Amino acid sequence: MEVKTSLLDNMIGVGDMVLIEPLSEDTFIENLKKRFDHNEIYTYIGSVVISMNPYKSLPIYTAEKVEEYRNRNFYELSPHVYALADEAYRSLREQDKDQCILITGESGAGKTEASKFVMSYVAAVCGKGQEVNKVKEQLLQSNPVLEAFGNAKTVRNDNSSRFGKYMDIEFDFKGDPLGGVISNYLLEKSRVVKQPRGERNFHIFYQLLSGASDDTLKKLKLDRDFSKYNYLSLDSATVNGLDDAASFRTVRNAMQIVGFMEDEVQSILELVAAVLKLGNIEFKPESRCNGYDESRVKDKNDLKEMCELLGIEQSVLERAFSFRTVEAKMEKMSTTLNVAQAYYARDALAKNLYSRLFSWLVNRINESIKAQTKSRKKVMGVLDIYGFEIFEDNSFEQFIINYCNEKLQQIFIELTLREEQEEYVREGIEWTNIEYFNNAIICDLIENNKNGILAMLDEECLRPGTVTDETFLDKLNTVCAEHQHFESRQSKNSKFLTDHSLPHNCFRIQHYAGKVLYRVEGFVDKNNDLLYRDLSQAMYKANHSLIKILFPEGNPAKVNLKRPPTAGFQFKASVGTLMKNLLSKNPNYIRCIKPNDKKAAHIFTDSLVCHQVRYLGLMENVRVRRAGYAFRQAYEPCLERYKMLCKQTWPHWKGPARGGVEVLLTDLQVPAEEFAYGRSKIFIRNPRTLFFLEEKRRQCLEDLATLIQKIYRGWKSRTHFLLLKKSQVVVAAWYRRFAQQKKYQNIRSSALVFQSFIRGWKARKLLRELKHKKRCEKAVSTISAYWHGTQARWELRRLKEEARNKHAVSVIWAAWLGTKVRREYRKFFRANAGKKIYDFTIQRIMQKYFLGLKKMPSMSPVDKSWPARPYGFLDGTHQELRRIFHLWRCKKYRSQFTEEKKATYEEKLAASELFKDKKALYPSSVGQPFKGDYVEMTKNPKYQKLNSFVEDKVLVADVVSKINRANGKGAPRIFLLTKKSLVLADQKTGQVKASVPLPDLSSVSVSTQNDGFFALKLKEGSTSAAKGDFLLSSDRLIEIITKLHCIGATSADRNKINIDISDEFLVQFKQDKVCVKFIQGTPKNGNGVACKRKNNRLLEVSVPSP
Ligand SMILES: Nc1ncnc2c1ncn2[C@@H]1O[C@H](COP(=O)(O)OP(=O)(O)O)[C@@H](O)[C@H]1O
Ligand SMILES: [Mg+2]
């Protein structure tokens, strides 16, 4: 159920000033103060919200707060700007009424902040979605941009808006924002060139210099130091709690979100920089021959840089600061400017540049945020205009601002009263007129087309001849002298001639909010707002897209000799449009009040607040509101709130709410004049009555609370008791069940034990019986088996006995027959049978022996195995058979030989015959095949010549060592043996050293030892013998000698060569015969054979012992 609350709950003071009792200025301010001290900064006067500036951030603008106020009735929660915003937004969405929110109050009272809260609230509660969010974001982000360019620090407010702003937010039928339109009013442009003490220029200048990167500043030809610029007053260049650099980033970001292009931003910054540069241009006088002074630019550097920034030709601008062209009646005249005029021109240019840039910015933002559809829109306007201003020194700007505030006050008066009246009519309640101060008369003083101050000013400005501020004042003194609200020392009626508070050059207006003294100085100029045409033309010529747009009147093609409308005229017109616009909408008021002049939290200056309360006409507002009936409320919420005060309406009233309220009030005996029944609302005349109702309600609520507590406690105890009772039953039931279960389980298990015992006993008995029966059966079969066995054995014994007897009989019979036969044939057997048995036996043995030889031993001739002899008497046969078999298999083996192999074997045989058991070297040669050629004669190209020398087939070719006869050392020689001769040749060259025909060879001598020495002995007297015998040595001695021997054996025409095998033989060396002696022993040089010449007669060869 939704909780119904009311503004009246937990009130501090009264939330709605209408309820104040008694109503007086003191109680009014007392109430504001009390609420302010409790951080309750909002208070209502009916539907108007009074807002006190807390000068500190309060936790009342959170998302939760937004949710709290969303879709709630205006009086349901404590006063808040959100309640007003919600009310406005809902009546816009649901009742299709265009709304405007008018925020008024003096500078620093919190108008701009309030307007931002309203906008952010509406943004938070209205539709969502990508497109809608973008629109919202753009609308919200337009604020920082405009604030940077249009706000400045003043003595009253660190972030004072120096322009008026009215923003229309447009919604579609669903209440989703579509876009917006911003209008700006009269930027205080004089601030660009001069700021009052303790104030600053517009924020953007400081933000740019502190926040821009070095690079950007360089591009803009700027210096970070504020003191370098004449237009930036130095005494309050920095503001506490304001971070200009951070703000610059915020502004850049906001510009991006709103949709400014990079080059646009750059152009804007260039213009800002140009204004700063412009301020630095100074002039000096230069005398001319005609006696006039002409101004000249002092230091041209700043001028040059500014011209570079804006793309202006320097000479054009320079000239525009020295000369002025006056056009009259198709004639052009050039007049010189003196230094003062040059400064005036410079400042006028700076002000115009800046204010036009600002207007351009507003238009550019409008272009971005304008609604994209043409369909019908609902509009919520938020007006945040500069507040009423009273300074020490008030000029044209204050006059204009205060005029604007007068107009707003008028709207306020008109609309509130009209609204009030309309409500009474709507509700059918009689209306009695109320007196209040209507400021229409002041508005008239200012804006009257005939003799209003603004009209007079325009008249003066347009008048030919010398026009000064003084002539203007004179004019006022005559025209407005009679006006009640106009005061001037020189006025025609001389009322104020002795009033010394009124200086001569001033006039005073009694505004609704107080008297304000205006100094006339500058009025004419400011109203004229003149910019010399030469300057606007110079600007138009600039090669800078933005500047060109800002000075369209500089276009020579569009020269317009008509004066542009004056500032006052323009303002009046735009205020007029604004008023018309506001009047067409449903107004919602936020009236801002500042509690002190120090911008400090917690300080409440009574006099200051009192002054504001007075000029804002708040007391009158309350009075008007209370004139008829102080409080009104729809019947339903009223009945809902007070129904407990009467038995008939409590707790439920069945009929219509109005009837209920009637019954209620009658029952409470409220005097009839204290209230009136409207169509949908009850109107209560006095707050007293309301408080009486409230008090009654409070008491009743206490009683009701006690009753509720009583009933609740009773109910709670009873339910607790019932719960206990119920639980007890449940517990008991469970316990009983559990106990019975346990008992049953016991009985059951006992029965089972019994049962099992009985069954066991029965089973055992049965088993016993069965076992007995089985044993009996087994005994029977055993007994019968034994019996049958015994019987069978008896039978077997009997049968065996019988068979034995039978066999014995036949054996005895056979033995007797044998004996009988042997006795008969013994005489024949001895003569014949012996030889026959012997022959037969021998034959059988031989047969068996030969059959046994069927499996032969291997066919290898070297296999010596032979089966063992089976019978001793066959020994001879067995050996013979072995020999025959061996011969046979040798024959078989030989028959496989080729001729070549046969020759080889023959040579081996010959070697064996020659050396076996005669020379120790022989056994090692048996396994070596006789290859013959070991030096590969034919293949080796080295021996080609040698090859051609020997004609026959070479039988042996080997390297031998020829023993030197003198010292017994060996030298390698090739040894060749053919059928006819032997040849010795040099091993390296193959050159023949000696060739001996075989017939010249007589014998060969070798030792019995294991050495390779052999001596070739030649026949005495033969041709070869001249050199003497050869003593050679070769490892293949056996092969060489055997081959030599075999040649001798095969050739029939020659004698065999003798082979002497002896350890001592003689060798013929030329003339001497030398004895070669072989001895066994260990030679000193290793294992080899050593040969040594011992003396003339002896050559000793020592052979290692085997
Ligand atoms: N509701 C508020 N909560 C906190 N501070 C506020 C509030 N309203 C105003 N202020 C403070 O007062 C200053 C001036 O408010 P501002 O809205 O700029 O005044 P105005 O627009 O009326 O001249 C703000 O800068 C802010 O510091
Ligand atoms: Mg402001």
Automatic annotation (TrEMBL):
Residues 12-698 form the Myosin motor domain. ATP binds at residues 105-112. Pfam families: IQ (PF00612), Myosin_head (PF00063), Myosin_TH1 (PF06017). GO terms for molecular function: actin filament binding; ATP binding; calmodulin binding; microfilament motor activity. GO terms for biological process: actin filament organization; actin filament-based movement; endocytosis; system development. Residues 575-597 are annotated as: Actin-binding. GO terms for cellular component: brush border; cell cortex; microvillus; myosin complex; plasma membrane. Its main location: cytoplasm. It comes from the Eukaryota. Residues 919-1105 form the TH1 domain. It is found in: Cytoplasm, Cell cortex. The keyword Acyltransferase does not apply. Keywords: Actin-binding, ATP-binding, Calmodulin-binding, Isopeptide bond, Motor protein, Myosin, Nucleotide-binding, Phosphoprotein, Repeat, Ubl conjugation. Motor protein that may participate in process critical to neuronal development and function such as cell migration, neurite outgrowth and vesicular transport. Belongs to the TRAFAC class myosin-kinesin ATPase superfamily. Myosin family. This is Unconventional myosin-Ib. It comes from Cyprinus carpio carpio.
